[in-house]
Amino acid sequence: MKVIGDLTDIDIAEAHQSKALMDQIEEGLRGQERALDFLQAKRWAGRSEAFAQTWADLLNQEYGDNLLESIEMLSKRGIRLREERQKRAHGVVQQALALAKQIRFLHWELAFPIVWPDGWGSETGGFDAVIGNPPWDRIKLQEVEWFGERRLDIARAARASDRKRMIAALAAQNNPLWQDYVEARDTAENAARVFRECGDYPLLSSGDINIYSLFVERAAALIHNRGVVGLLTPSGIAADLGAAKFFRALTSEGQGGARLILLYDFENKKVFFPDIHASFKFCTLVFGGEERRTTRTRCASYLHAVSETNDADKVLELAAADFAAVNPNTGAAPIFRTRRDAEITTAIYRRQPVLVDRRSERPKKLWPARYVRMFDMTNDAGLFLRRDELEAQGWYPVELNRWKKGKAEAVPL
Question: Which residues contact 249 (CB under 8 A, 6 or more apart)?
């Protein structure tokens, strides 16, 4: 490993030498790769009795006392196997290899062995820097986007209830598109299940998972204790309730300060990404490993140009205590357009408590307020009527943008 790390690939001879050495290493690691592929495939297979039984047989040394060699043997010599149990095991291993090829499992510890010289998860291992712009897509199948590339009439349905009715019609017609839709939907649901259950994403895999959040948590696990992560993500990483535990871990004060180094929040305004809605917000998120901390975090909100990061009135330096004071329950980033905004807001929060303090096991309700969610635009779509539908059903408009039909009244949303 060290020999490859010391090679600079400065000329074609060293490049060929690097490849030859890496080929040798990969061949030597093939058994471990097969075993890890099998374990990952077992996760994706869900509650598969065949996978569970084969795994139990492997652990019980049914096919030999070396786990790696047993999986390798089952992947290559199935034709020679005669016993029912061995046939089943061979089929399971072949299914695992097919899943590995389809999903393309990446085993970081094998792909970058030099980065973890003392083994995966060791305190001395990890990347010095992880930098990137991960995908900003939800794992859950988005029907509008999916059908937008296949059936525009379904994608453009005015309401979610109309769209679901049209999708159900595909199933009734035995349309091939229905089967493609079901396969895509099931694959997305299975992926979400794996990410929630695998244990690699304990803080950012709840709710409606966005792929970028998995990249963020994975980056945090990949960096060295003194390393740095720099990612471009939606601003939800610093504001959404689902990201609260992770973000609070970055802003909580430890020895030497907080891990969050910089958070620059931008409003798209069609300047940065012309094809994305003007009001969409994204941020530059920079944080360190467990041992890389800072006493002051550089923050700015509602930036519309990179040059504004040099504006002293917009860029603030906040301590861990400032995050806790403004958003004690979630630890979310406070949104300040200017330095004066920050001064006024923090002064208010120093004098007045939040509505409910949820930091302890028994939340403290500090104000006599009650809040509810009345309607959901998607889940309650069947309750909403458009103007043309109201007119067709005999409704007529009255004052205050309301509609009447007999004694019944429809109100605007």
Answer: 203, 259
